[in-house]
Write a structure and sequence with these properties.
Helices cover 42% and strands 15% of the residues. With 226 residues, it is of the alpha/beta class. Strands 5-4-1-6-8-7-9 form a 7-stranded mixed sheet, with helices on both faces. It is globular and about 45 Å long.
């Protein structure tokens, strides 16, 4: 079984409580799940620490995500617990500070990962906050067993990047329509959040196209011209 596993937490040193900040009348974390619901998957999991569960539970239920709790700082361990609990063999890894994730790019890279039998797949050249990572459960279990540094545990996949001899990695440059390495779509600061509010409003009139990478890039560029 393959599944989207969305990692999120409540606290943030740079933007406290950002997951629950309103974006178009709904909490930011709900908007992330809303976008990820456009990505084909057999299951959708919101994986969070225990201290976020009470706030996230109703939002996960509304978005039709299954809530799962695990270690706060050992996010790699949290993923592996979820993989084992639900019998997931392939994960689409997403993060809770990216409400403008490209649903079409996520679907494409995951389909390619499955076609190639890759241990890991992710596009390079996307805007910051636009992408996901597709990774096999077996690769994450191996990383869990040997990854030792706090950085590797918190960010889930760095052990894989650092050991290409041990994994089948697929890291292609994104197609031109999705490229925008100069663009920042993630929400990590007050300035990011202010920009996200303007971008969400600009995209709101586009219907389903609002979840497509090219439309998001175009709207972002247009905001910069105003």
């Amino acid at each position: 079984m393959s599944a989207i596993i969305l990692q999120a937490r409540i606290d943030s040193s740079r933007l406290p409580g950002k997951s629950l900040l309103p974006l178009g009348g709904k909490p930011l974390i709900f908007r992330v799940m809303e976008a990820l619901n456009r990505v084909p998957a057999e299951m959708r999991v919101l994986a969070c620490p225990e201290d976020a569960a009470a706030d996230f539970a109703p939002l996960a239920a509304e978005a039709k995500f299954t809530l799962f709790t695990g270690p706060k700082d050992d996010v790699l361990g949290r993923y592996c617990l979820a993989l084992r609990h639900f019998g997931i063999r392939y994960a689409i890894r997403a993060t809770g500070d990216n409400p403008f994730v490209f649903a079409d790019a996520a679907a494409a890279i995951n389909a390619k990962a499955l076609d190639l039998g890759a241990d890991y797949a992710g596009y390079s050249g996307l805007p910051l906050g636009a992408g996901v990572e597709s990774v096999s459960a077996d690769a994450l279990f191996l990383a869990e067993a040997v990854a030792a540094s706090p950085y590797e545990r918190e960010h889930v996949c760095p052990y894989l990047y650092a050991h290409p001899e041990s994994f089948r990695l697929h890291r292609p440059l994104a197609p031109p329509r999705w490229q925008g390495p100069d663009i920042r779509l993630t929400v990590d600061t007050a300035e990011d959040y202010e920009r996200a509010q303007s971008l969400f409003t600009a995209l709101d009139r586009l219907g389903e196209e609002r979840y497509h990478g090219a439309a998001i890039i175009a709207a972002y560029r247009k905001l910069g011209d105003i």
